[in-house]
Design goal:
Shape: globular
Radius of gyration: 21 Å
CATH topology of the largest domain: D-amino Acid Aminotransferase, Chain A, domain 1
Number of domains: 3
Helix content: 25-40%
Number of helices: 11
CATH architecture of the largest domain: 2-Layer Sandwich
Length: 364
Amino acid sequence: MKKKKIRVAVLFGGKSAEHEVSIQSAKNVVASLDETKYDVVLVGIDKQGSWHTLPGQSLLTSSFAKQTAIGDTNEVRLVAQDGGGKLVSLSGSGDAEAIDVVFPILHGPFGEDGSMQGFLKLANVPFVGSGVLGSAVGMDKDISKRLLKEAGLPIAQFLVFRKNEKIDSDAVIKRLGLPLFVKPANLGSSIGVKKVHNKDEFSSAISEAFTYDNKILIEEAIVGKEVECSILGNDDPIASLPGEIVANHEFYDYDAKYFDEKGAVLCIPANIPKEKIKEVQALAIKTFKTLCLEGMARIDFFYTKDQTFFVNEANTIPGFTNISMYPQLWEASGMSYAALVDRLIELALEKYASEQHLSTTVIH
């Protein structure tokens, strides 16, 4: 008897400044899915939040933004139905399409911050990656750094400010020194991040960060190598070989990460002493567990001249573009891109199955 294919909904786009990055990541995930094992359903979310199914493998050859603009996609909703999740057309045409698992490739707010994960749980469908808590904590740099500090993990000094709070530049500079970094608290891909070298650059960096979030971080600049580790697993996660980012821009910014193929050199494995590899892997796993993450994450570090690691941040839906570190680290660790995607889907189904065994009735 022929084995039934797993129907995977690849979710991409979204209401985020990282919308375009998401599309690039999704293209690579879709290209790696084995057609003999999976039925792939492409679901693009436009910047207004509407969901659209796209025909066939169109994502690999066409612009999602262009397709939705000319209206040749079917607007749908994901609903809980018959004990699982189903995609229902808003036009009323066609039958509801059952979904076995969702692979969300949504970077930033409304996709990586727990809101989508909460929706998918309510729709009763398995999904790749962290749940509501881990996603929310991983996205909020303020909360994640507080948890990491509480767990005794090494982090840079930082200050947090909300919109309309008075920010005394002299006091901040006295506390954190120069240069320093200004970042939106809830955004990734280095969007809105500015390196401030002097007091004259301070105000414009603050203003730009606040265009993306109502809460910002101001953080001391740690001088050192940028080292990253990929994590895979649920309750018993494993770490890849570490890699090193050598940025050709002043720092590893948005363009260097996704669009400028010469914007950075990825050194895999990282150019660090061999005895330090196990140390950074252990720190990465501890970070993953401390932040209640599941499935996957990329943990970023700084490695200083005195051979100390500082945790920079965790990325719960790391980039999957052709120049992204997460899949490349697993390739260097012996796991192909296709095998990695297979394993992520397995982990999603395993996590969902384990949650179904939890009692919803009080036992007397």
